[in-house]
Design a protein that fits this description.
alpha/beta; 2 domains; 9 helices; 10% strand
Length: 399
């Protein structure tokens, strides 16, 4: 299916059940269809034929040494599911070696809430292949690019979400260490186990095209369900505290005590609970997409748009919960904190200590809120994969 390294072409693969072939309208380089009567990339005239629809753009260029610094995840074998989907039909050697393949999807097919949450960045465009060739023959299959597109979508989304998750958690941990070092940040073992299970399951999906029971995903699903309900209870309790606080000024000691009463965590447990709440929500969102992709790959003749009804609503719910957490921290960061004076007055040094504690508390709320603020998402999905001389594949992070 793929050409020689010097072959100046790209390939478009329908994702929605349309056959390819000479009568199909050619999508443009961004993965979307060229308008009838309009021009696609490279001034390629759209041709009459089947109605346009979503398509995967697959292009390639010679791999460069700088790309070795962008390796992500474990190396995939030459016989992996991803390699098999990239290979030319009948070519047992897999994809052409020494190339970097770029797969561009025009949309996220239901994963948009998760990508907006992480603010995924797209890889830069490359000069190189410009002539686009629809691939496939009428009657050759319902969606020749669906499985490859699904693997690209799950990998690109996992790169974006895991990277953003780690950045946010690192920023939260740093903020607590600098502004509230007495607060504990112990990681729940269930979250650690879920993270490991998701990483293993993602590798199995790209390597074998299915997730096996050895990945431990069933246990992760059960634990994340419990943690999600716990997170909902925490957020609702914290929201009640903020709602009842005096917007003109509330004693800092009292606010910290009230936040600590939620879940009986104590103020020392509040930052760690925010850390755990965010992680549980994002891990569960990653789990939703991964399990749906596994189900779809096990169902032959399914188009990629069939993914949307399986994931969009649930992912939107998890993103909304993260949004609640971000709004909560933002409201806390602008709530005026006052010093509670005892009857008979207070020593000046005690007043100063309370004021300093309030300042650190508000700075902590601000740092935590800023950590949860995602950047903009460009609206499309890009994955780059390098084919090594050994025949193995290496997934790349965005440049």
């Amino acid at each position: 299916m793929l050409g020689h390294p010097d072959d100046p072409r790209g390939i478009v693969l329908p994702l929605d059940g349309r056959p390819g072939g000479p009568d199909a309208a050619a999508p443009d380089r961004n993965g979307g269809p060229a308008r009838n009567g309009g021009q696609g990339h490279g001034d390629r005239q759209a041709r009459p034929g089947l109605p346009p629809g979503p398509a995967l753009l697959l292009s390639w260029h010679a791999a460069g040494p700088a790309e070795a610094d962008r390796d992500w995840g474990t190396t995939l074998s030459a016989s992996s599911e991803l390699a098999r989907r990239l290979a030319r039909p009948g070519n047992g050697r897999g994809p052409e070696r020494g190339l970097t393949y770029r797969l561009t999807l025009p949309e996220a097919f239901g994963a948009e809430p998760l990508l907006r949450l992480t603010g995924a960045e797209s890889a830069p465009a490359h000069s190189g292949p410009s002539a686009l060739l629809p691939v496939g023959l009428p009657g050759s299959g319902p969606a020749p690019g669906a499985d490859l597109g699904l693997l690209a979508l799950t990998l690109a989304t996992e790169i974006a979400t895991s990277g953003t998750q780690h950045r946010v958690l690192d920023e939260l941990t740093t903020a607590v260490g600098e502004l509230a070092p007495s607060c504990g940040m112990r990681l729940d073992s269930r979250l650690r186990a879920a993270e490991e299970s998701l990483r293993t399951a993602q590798t199995e999906l790209a390597e074998h095209g299915a997730v096996t029971s050895s990945a431990g995903l069933d246990t992760a699903v059960a634990n994340l369900s419990v943690l999600r309900h716990q997170t909902h209870a925490w957020i609702a309790g914290w929201e009640r505290v903020v709602t009842t606080a005096d917007a003109a000024g509330t004693p800092g000691i009292g606010l910290r005590d009230q936040l600590g009463e939620v879940g009986k965590l104590g103020w020392a447990g509040f930052p760690g609970a925010v850390h755990a709440a965010y992680q549980a929500l994002v891990l569960d969102a990653r789990r939703i997409l991964l399990t749906a992709a596994d189900d779809l790959l096990r169902s032959p003749n399914r188009s990629l748009p069939a993914l949307r009804p399986l994931v969009e609503s649930d992912l939107a719910g998890r993103a909304a919960d993260v949004g609640r957490l971000h709004r909560l921290l933002t409201r806390l960061s602008v709530l005026p904190l006052t010093v509670r004076k005892r009857s008979g007055g207070m020593m000046p040094n005690l007043i100063a200590d309370q004021a300093a504690a309030n300042a650190r508390t508000q700075a902590l709320f601000t740092r935590m809120a800023n950590a949860l603020r995602p950047p903009a998402w460009p609206g499309h999905v890009v994955l780059e994969v390098r084919s090594l001389e050994t025949g193995e594949l290496q997934v790349l992070r965005p440049a």
